[in-house]
Design brief:
CATH topology of the largest domain: BirA Bifunctional Protein, domain 2
Radius of gyration: 26 Å
Strand order of the largest sheet: 1-5-6-10-9-8-7
Number of strands: 10
Strand content: 15-25%
Bound molecules: adenosine-5'-[phenylalaninyl-phosphate]
Number of helices: 12
CATH class of the largest domain: Alpha Beta
Low-confidence stretches: 174-178
CATH architecture of the largest domain: 2-Layer Sandwich
Oligomer: single chain
Largest sheet: 7 strands, mixed
Number of domains: 2
Distance between the termini: 62 Å
C-alpha cells in the first residue's frame, strides 16, 4: 500500500507541475480530492490493514495528501502570476510611435516631472485599460441624489455619517455645469461612487468603466485625512459576476502596483450601495504577513473598499438584478501611495513642498 501511495504521489506531482491552465489543475484536484477522488477514497482500505501496517500507512497517507494539496496550491499561484504578468507586460497598443522620426527632433532638456499622484494615475489607468476598462467622468459638484440618495443612502440614514459632506449654498438656483444636475441639494462629491448611477443611466450592460478624480470631505485634517483627495473606482456590470471576480481584480491590481507577490483577501465591510460589501486587504508589503508596526501586527493592510452592487442600486439604474450583477471597487490614491512609497503624511501630496515632491 505504501508503494501505491508513493506511485500516486510521484505521477500526480508530475501532472501538477506540467499543468498549464487553472482548468487542468481543477481537473487534477477533482481526480484526487473530489467526491470519488483517489485521495478521498483511499482511507476506505484502512479497515483491511493490520494495526502495525496502519501505523506506517496512516502517516504516509497524511503526508502524501498534504504534499499533493500544497503542490496544487503552489502551481495555482504560479499559473495566476504568469497570467497577471502576461497582461501587465502586453503593450497597450493604442498608438504606434515612429521612433526614427522622433529622434530627428531636437528638444530642450525637460525640467521637473509629473506629480507623484499623476504618475500613479497613469499606472492605474494602464493596468485597468489592459482588462478592457474605459474611463468615465462624473462631476465634482454634484447633487445629493447621485452622491447618496440613488446609492441606497436616503436622507437621515445613519450611513451618511461615513461621509463628512461639504454642501453648497446655491441660493436655490442650480449651478452651471457641463453635466445636467438633477434636483437635490448640491454638494462636493465625497466619493467617485457618484459615477455609479450616471454610468448605469448612460450605458447598457455589459460594461467596464473606471473613474478617477478628486473628492472632498469636511474632515478634521490629519496625517491620514485630507479635505481634498483622489479616489479611483471601477464599475463592472455583466452576467454571472461574483466575489471571485472581485478577488481576482484586487489581486491583479495589487500585483501590478506593488510587485508580483502581493496577495489579497476580502473581509466583510458595510457600504450601503453594495451587498455583500468588503474591505480589501493586501498582504502587508513590509513584513509579508508576519506582522509589523505598519500593519499593527495583523500582517494585512486594508487597501480598498468594494462589493457586489446592491440590487436596489442596479434597479435604480434600470438594470435587472436577476439578470446582471455588478462589482464596484475603489480606493484613495494618497493612502495607497503612502503604503507603497513609505510616506508618513497624506498632506504632503498637496503641500507644494518641492523637496518632498522632487524625491519621486
Ligand atoms: C468610499 O468612499 C466608497 N465610495 C468606496 C467604495 C467604492 C466602496 C466602491 C464600495 C464600492 P471610504 O469612505 O472608505 O469609501 O473611502 C475610500 C478610500 O478613500 C479610503 O479607503 C481612503 O483610502 C480614501 N479616503 C477616504 N477619506 C479620505 C481622506 N479624508 N483623505 C484621504 N483619503 C481618504
Amino acid at each position: 500500500m505504501d508503494d501505491h501511495l508513493d506511485n500516486l504521489k510521484k505521477s500526480y506531482q508530475l501532472d501538477i507541475e506540467s499543468a498549464k491552465t487553472l482548468g487542468e489543475l481543477d481537473k487534477l484536484f477533482l481526480e484526487l480530492f473530489g467526491k470519488n477522488g483517489k485521495i478521498t477514497l483511499f482511507p476506505k482500505n484502512f479497515s483491511k490493514l493490520e494495526k502495525s501496517e496502519l501505523k506506517v500507512v496512516g502517516p504516509l497517507f497524511n503526508q502524501t495528501k498534504k504534499s499533493l494539496e500544497s503542490a496544487i496550491e503552489e502551481r495555482r499561484e504560479e499559473i495566476k502570476l504568469s497570467g497577471f504578468k502576461k497582461i501587465l507586460e502586453e503593450p497597450l497598443g493604442l498608438r504606434t510611435v515612429n521612433s526614427a522620426a522622433l529622434k530627428k527632433i531636437k528638444t530642450k532638456k525637460r525640467q521637473g516631472h509629473m506629480h507623484l499622484v499623476t504618475q500613479f494615475e497613469e499606472e492605474i489607468i494602464r493596468a485597468f485599460a489592459k482588462l478592457g476598462f474605459s474611463q468615465f467622468e462624473s462631476p465634482q459638484i454634484d447633487s445629493d441624489d447621485y452622491n447618496f440618495e440613488k446609492l441606497n443612502i436616503p436622507e437621515n440614514h445613519p450611513a451618511r455619517d461615513l461621509w463628512d459632506t461639504l454642501y453648497i449654498e446655491s441660493g436655490g438656483k442650480s449651478l452651471e455645469s457641463s453635466e445636467k444636475i438633477t434636483p437635490g441639494k448640491l454638494l462636493l462629491r465625497t466619493h467617485t461612487s457618484n459615477s455609479q448611477m450616471r454610468i448605469m443611466e448612460k450605458m447598457k450592460p455589459p460594461f467596464r468603466q473606471m473613474i478617477l478624480g478628486r473628492c472632498y470631505r469636511y474632515e478634521n485634517v490629519d496625517a491620514r485625512h485630507e479635505h481634498t483627495f483622489e479616489q479611483f473606482e471601477i464599475v463592472y456590470v455583466d452576467k454571472g459576476l461574483s466575489m471571485a471576480n472581485l478577488l481576482y481584480l484586487s489581486e491583479y491590481f495589487f500585483q501590478a502596483i506593488f510587485g508580483y507577490d502581493v496577495k489579497a483577501r476580502l473581509k466583510p465591510k458595510y457600504y450601503p450601495f453594495v451587498e455583500p460589501g468588503a474591505g480589501v486587504d493586501g498582504l502587508c508589503i513590509f513584513c509579508k504577513g508576519k506582522g509589523c508596526k505598519v500593519c499593527g501586527g495583523v500582517g494585512w493592510l486594508e487597501l480598498a473598499g468594494a462589493g457586489m452592487i446592491h440590487p436596489t442600486v442596479l434597479r435604480n439604474g434600470g438594470i435587472d438584478p436577476d439578470v446582471y450583477s455588478g462589482i464596484a471597487w475603489g480606493f484613495g490614491l494618497g493612502r495607497m501611495l503612502m503604503v507603497r512609497e513609505g510616506i508618513e503624511d497624506v498632506r504632503l501630496f498637496n503641500s507644494g513642498d518641492l523637496k518632498f515632491l522632487n524625491k519621486y
